Amino acid sequence: MKIIKIIIFNLWILLANISNGQDMQQNEVLKLVDLLNNTMSENIQFTLKKNKAVLHWNDVSDKLDLRNDSEIAKDSMSKEEIDKRLYDSGRYIGNIYWQYDFEPTTSVKTSFKANKFGLIFLKLKFQEKDTININSKLNAYSCVHSTLDSSPHQVQWTGDNYISLLLKPQISTNNLKFKVYGITISGKFEKKDNGQMAKNYTKKLRTVLKREFQQLFNNISLIYTPKNSYEIAN
Known about the structure:
- The chain is built from five helices and twelve strands.
- It is an alpha+beta fold.
- It has one domain.
- Strands 1, 2, 3, 6, 7, 8, 9, 10, 11 and 12 form a ten-stranded antiparallel β-sheet that branches. Strands 4-5 form a two-stranded antiparallel ribbon.
């Protein structure tokens, strides 16, 4: 498990008196957000490339897999298992899902913001007015889906495009972690050929991103001690 260790004196002052499992008060969350913006936000970047993503946090990077659960599960299946479980007389009978293939893009600004419920928004903003191209298709043809959606096509993500995560800070011994409560994808998604967009295209993308960010934040801990020092370790 990768653990990001951030040892900052001010973080110790802020969190040392909070008991394990205790929710932070609103004023404590506001101070934490100021600290994160002042000490970490410039060192966080998010890169999308093909069906993967990477979160760069200081000198540590963690990968995200942007494939559907069913596609990931196939990695551990033999050819015989795939033929038996996913096909019937040569006809595909497995799950139908979106495949996302991003042309490389990296966020240009990261910021933290508190809401009135003690939660924190982590915003990963991409270059304004840039077009992010996503080569897309359903993994198989289906009578209940558009034939065009099952053929390779390009989706363009434009406008005020960013990803926003809703996080809850959680305290344990000398340790600050975050639980992912929700995710927002801002911007406009349109087919390059102006064809009709499937209603579940962005919904399924949010589902995949939330799964991966939750797994990622399960592996990230901010460690605080009374020492005024800084360390990153795996």
